[in-house]
Design a protein that fits this description.
- The complex is a heterodimer of chains A (184) and B (123).
- Chain A is of the alpha+beta class.
- Chain A contains six helices and six strands; from the N terminus they run αββααββαββαα.
- In chain A, strand 3 and strand 4 form a beta hairpin.
- Chain B starts with a helix and ends with a strand.
- The chains are: A alpha+beta (184), B alpha+beta (123).
Chain lengths: 184, 123
C-alpha cells in the first residue's frame, strides 16, 4: 500500500467485518520523538490467541470465500521495515485494538496520504457507525466524532446524505489543512 | 473557530435537507464497492470517492456501501450497481474515470456499460 491512510481504511474494514458498531482511529505524528503511530480500535467480536498469532502471517484471513488474506501482515511488514512494528490487543467478545508504529523519518515510511478520503468513504459506506477520529500533529490536535454530527442533524437525516457528505468533505479539508498549516 | 462555524453551516444544511427529504420517493439505487485488502490496494477508495462526487454533482440519491473480498482479486476494484427491479451488474477494474461513466450511464439512465461488465446476477 502506498499510503498509511489505506492501511487505516483496511483496518477499519476488518473492524466492520468483525461486526463493530464503534470504531476509534488515532493518529500521532511526532517529529521531535521521530515517531509516527496510528491505532484502530473497535468493539467488534475480537480474536482468540490462536488467530492473533496467525493473523500476522501472510495468507491468513477470517473470510470464508477464499482462505487467503494479506491485510495485517502487509502492515506489519511495512512497520518493521521502518524500525517499528504492529501490536494487537484483542480478546473474543471484547473488541480489537491494532497499533502500528513507524520511525517518522525512515526513508521507507509511506506518507499518511489522503486520510480525508479514507474518512469520507468509511462514513459514506457505514452511516450508522460511531466513529471517533483523533489526529495529533506535533502537539496540535483535530478531533471528529460522528455522534456530534448526528446530534446536530437530528434523527431523520443519515450521515450518508449527499449534502451532509459534501459538508463533511469541506470540513475535513479545512480542519486538516489547519492541523498541518498552523492557521487559527 | 472553524469547528463552530462549520457546525452552524451543518445546522443550516439540516433545514434544507429536511425539505428535500420530503420530496424524495422510494426505489433506492444501490452501489457496492469491493473494499477488501485487494480492492483497497487496487484503488477502491479513489473509485468510491469518485462515485460519491459524481452522485453529489448530479444530485442523485443512491446508497453507496462496501463489501469485502469476493475472490475476484485480479479484477478489483469491483463495483456492483443494483437498480430496483433490475439485474445486479458487477463491473471490474474500475478506475475513477470509469466510475463517473457508471454513474452517468447506468445509475442515472439504466444503460449498462458493457465494456466493464464482469458478471450479472438476478436479484
Amino acid at each position: 500500500m502506498e499510503e498509511l491512510s489505506l492501511h487505516i481504511l483496511d483496518l477499519v474494514q476488518n473492524s466492520i467485518g468483525a461486526a463493530a458498531t464503534r470504531v476509534g482511529i488515532l493518529i500521532e505524528e511526532d517529529v521531535a520523538a521521530d515517531r509516527f503511530l496510528f491505532e484502530v480500535k473497535d468493539n467488534g467480536q475480537g480474536m482468540d490467541k490462536e488467530l492473533v498469532r496467525e493473523v500476522l502471517k501472510p495468507f491468513t484471513t477470517t473470510r470464508t470465500t477464499r482462505r487467503v488474506g494479506l491485510g495485517l501482515s502487509l502492515l506489519d511488514m511495512a512497520a518493521r521495515q521502518c524500525d517499528g512494528g504492529v501490536e494487537i490487543d484483542t480478546e473474543p467478545g471484547k473488541g480489537t485494538r491494532v497499533r502500528a508504529v513507524f520511525r517518522y523519518s525512515h526513508w521507507d515510511r509511506a506518507p499518511l496520504g489522503d486520510i480525508k478520503t479514507t474518512l469520507l468513504t468509511i462514513i459514506a459506506a457505514n452511516p450508522e457507525l460511531q466513529l471517533e477520529y483523533v489526529h495529533r500533529v506535533n502537539g496540535r490536535i483535530f478531533r471528529l466524532d460522528t455522534e456530534e454530527i448526528r446530534t446536530v442533524l437530528g434523527g431523520d437525516i443519515p450521515l450518508n446524505n449527499m449534502a451532509v457528505l459534501g459538508w463533511l468533505d469541506d470540513y475535513l479539508a479545512q480542519s486538516l489543512a489547519e492541523l498541518y498549516g498552523g492557521e487559527e | 473557530m472553524t469547528a463552530l462555524k462549520n457546525l452552524d453551516d451543518l445546522r443550516k444544511l439540516r433545514e434544507r435537507v429536511k425539505e428535500d427529504l420530503n420530496e424524495r420517493f422510494g426505489g433506492e439505487i444501490k452501489i457496492i464497492v469491493g473494499m477488501g485488502t485487494c480492492g483497497i490496494a487496487a484503488g477502491a477508495r479513489e473509485v468510491m470517492a469518485a462515485i460519491l462526487n459524481e452522485l453529489r454533482l448530479r444530485n442523485i440519491n443512491a446508497t453507496v456501501t462496501q463489501t469485502g473480498c469476493i475472490g475476484m482479486c485480479e479484477r478489483e476494484p469491483l463495483v456492483d450497481i443494483v437498480r430496483p427491479g433490475e439485474k445486479r451488474i458487477t463491473y471490474g477494474r474500475v478506475t475513477p474515470r470509469d466510475a463517473k461513466r457508471l454513474v452517468a450511464e447506468h445509475v442515472l439512465h439504466g444503460r449498462v456499460v458493457e465494456d466493464l461488465v464482469v458478471a450479472r446476477f438476478e436479484e
